[in-house]
């Protein structure tokens, strides 16, 4: 006799209920970066749009920053930590292969015994986590899911690399995803192009240290022009596809929150998508730098906190980076 398995019952739809962010207290201007590379403030600003970035201190660990951001998101969502049924952390700068940093974060925020795991999807990691959380809520495996994007990229920055020394910053952004009676997180458009994996990578693998003692600590390196061309010409297509999948026209958008990699990439995407002037565009990269998986939730948090965006606005999110991977979706802001 074949047993009948009772299916899980989830919410009809899911939405972002709350958002929180944490930026380290130390602000690093371009002048400090210029102590290590032959460049200028004008060159850095013209190439990337970055003026300052935040770098974490010894106590501002990946876990500590995540706990701060998560606490704000949970409070903003109006739920208790005990109600969180899943913790998803996207990061490339947690240096322990195991256990997942998500388990420590879940314990420290008082979440009880939720599912907890890390994902590695580079700068698209927040989009990946958001989609997993949405599917958990609608699939019935969690009523509320916490998604965190967090990085300490200052630990993986080669200060002598003129191409990347000025790019990266630290921080954590978090959202709570929960049940909704109407669609508030659109279909995901995501994918990977592994033939371009060498364009953004860690300089050496961790296992090198088992055999070689004179190897410099790993850093992130990238082929800047190749990444720029890919992002400018391909990601606008992915963003448009996400709009089409959600049935949203550019004229219907209120907010555009792209991964904060480079101001020129952001401006090019705005132009290619032909976004109306009334659409608020996140340009957090100027003062935060590239924080990889944390960049979209951090930019979202700042727009809402400053009033540049408001609850209920329709926003297009797109992340892209190492892999090369990408993820784009349309959401209703909390």
From TrEMBL:
Catalytic activity: malonyl-[ACP] + acetyl-CoA + H(+) = 3-oxobutanoyl-[ACP] + CO2 + CoA
One Pfam family in the UniProt entry: ACP_syn_III
BP-aspect Gene Ontology terms: fatty acid biosynthetic process; secondary metabolite biosynthetic process
Assigned EC number: 2.3.1.180
Taxonomy, superkingdom: Bacteria
Residues covered by region (ACP-binding): 260-264
An annotated Gene Ontology molecular function: 3-oxoacyl-[acyl-carrier-protein] synthase activity
Domain Beta-ketoacyl-[acyl-carrier-protein] synthase III C-terminal: 243-332
GO CC annotation: cytoplasm
Residues making up the signal peptide according to the UniProt record: none
Localisation per UniProt entry: Cytoplasm
Domain Beta-ketoacyl-[acyl-carrier-protein] synthase III N-terminal, chain residue ranges per copy: 117-194
Pathway the protein contributes to: Lipid metabolism; fatty acid biosynthesis
Similarity annotation: Belongs to the thiolase-like superfamily. FabH family.
Alphabetical list of NCBIfam families matching this protein: fabH, PRK09352.1
Subunit structure and binding partners: Homodimer.
Function noted in UniProt: Catalyzes the condensation reaction of fatty acid synthesis by the addition to an acyl acceptor of two carbons from malonyl-ACP. Catalyzes the first condensation reaction which initiates fatty acid synthesis and may therefore play a role in governing the total rate of fatty acid production. Possesses both acetoacetyl-ACP synthase and acetyl transacylase activities. Its substrate specificity determines the biosynthesis of branched-chain and/or straight-chain of fatty acids.
Record's comment describing the protein's domains: The last Arg residue of the ACP-binding site is essential for the weak association between ACP/AcpP and FabH.
UniProt-recorded name of the protein: Beta-ketoacyl-[acyl-carrier-protein] synthase III
Annotated gene: fabH
């Amino acid at each position: 006799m074949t047993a009948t398995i009772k299916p899980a019952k989830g919410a009809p739809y899911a939405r972002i209920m709350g958002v929180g962010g944490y930026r380290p207290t130390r602000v690093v201007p371009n002048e400090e970066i210029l102590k290590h590379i032959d460049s200028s403030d004008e060159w850095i600003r013209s190439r990337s749009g970055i003026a300052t970035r935040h770098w974490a201190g010894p106590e501002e660990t990946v876990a500590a920053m995540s706990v701060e951001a998560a606490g704000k998101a949970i409070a903003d969502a109006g739920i208790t930590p005990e109600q969180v049924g899943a913790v998803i952390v996207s990061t490339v700068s947690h240096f322990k292969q195991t256990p997942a940093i998500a388990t420590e974060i879940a314990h420290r925020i008082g979440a009880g015994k939720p599912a907890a795991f890390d994902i590695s999807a580079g700068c698209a990691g927040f989009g990946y986590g958001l989609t997993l959380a949405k599917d958990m809520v609608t699939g019935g495996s969690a009523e509320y899911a916490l998604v965190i994007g967090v990085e300490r990229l200052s630990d993986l920055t080669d200060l002598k690399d003129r191409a990347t020394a000025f790019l990266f910053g630290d921080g954590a952004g978090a959202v709570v995803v929960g049940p909704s009676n109407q669609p508030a997180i659109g279909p995901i458009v995501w994918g990977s192009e592994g033939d371009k994996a060498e364009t953004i990578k860690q300089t050496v693998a961790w296992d090198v240290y088992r055999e070689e003692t004179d190897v410099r600590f790993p850093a992130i390196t990238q082929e800047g022009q190749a990444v720029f061309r890919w992002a400018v010409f391909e990601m606008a297509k992915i963003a448009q596809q996400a709009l089409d999948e959600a049935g949203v026209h550019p004229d219907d958008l209120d907010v555009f929150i792209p991964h904060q990699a480079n101001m020129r990439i952001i401006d090019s995407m705005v132009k290619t998508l032909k976004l109306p002037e009334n659409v608020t565009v996140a340009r957090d990269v100027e003062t935060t730098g590239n924080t990889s998986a944390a960049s979209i939730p951090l930019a979202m948090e700042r727009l809402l906190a400053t009033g540049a965006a408001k609850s209920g606005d329709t926003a297009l999110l797109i992340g892209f980076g190492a892999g090369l991977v990408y993820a784009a979706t349309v959401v209703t802001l909390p």
